[in-house]
Amino acid sequence: VQLQASGGGSVQAGESLKLSCAASGFTFSVYPMAWFRQAPGKEREFVAGINRHGDRLSYADSVSGRFTISRDNAKNTLYLQMNNLRSEDTAIYYCATASSTFISQNTEAYRYWGQGTLVTVSS
Questions:
Q1: Confidence (pLDDT) at 32
Q2: Of 15, 24, 61, 63, which cross-links 11 as Cys (Cβ 3.0–4.6 Å)?
Q3: Where is 79: in which H helix or E strand?
Q4: Backbone phi and psi for residue 40, each to the nearest 5 degrees, phi listed first
Q5: Is there a contact between 43 and 28 (Cβ–Cβ < 8 Å)?
């Protein structure tokens, strides 16, 4: 099983980034997926989640209206479009595969994790 996150980088506040997470080694289309993030000195937190079909989405209040999660089951890839980035969005972003059939904001509900990609937003 592998989740390969990419697309991170350093941007100015107000700019955009799109993260990708390429999945392999399991049946991607069966499971809900999510993005989490962890800032220095803070706990890992839920950012956004998507069900297996891509028609049910969930967002943390802090990113709602600015971030969009999506998936392409034909390409086994998860995405996170991040617009109007803020300095407080600076973190390592992780993609994760749910252990069951529903989206959870709890890290313990996820079975597979990517290695993370760093997003740095300067103001």
A1: 98
A2: 15
A3: strand 77-82
A4: -55, 130
A5: no
How far is the C-alpha of 40 from the C-alpha of 24, rounded, in Å?
Answer: 29
Query: Residue with structure tokens 């800032």?
Result: 39
Measured CA to CA, the distance from residue 48 to residue 37 in angstroms comes to 10
* Strand order across the beta sheet in which 2-6 lies: 2-6, 17-24, 77-82, 67-72
β-pair partners for 107: none
Per-residue pLDDT tens for 53-110?
A: 999 999 999 999 999 999 999 999 999 999 999 999 999 999 999 998 899 999 999 9
69 phi, psi to nearest 5 deg: -95, 145
Least Cα distance to 20 among 120, 116, 121 occurs for 116
Q: Per-residue b/e over 39-52, b at no fewer than 16 CB within 10 Å?
A: eeeeebebbbbbbb
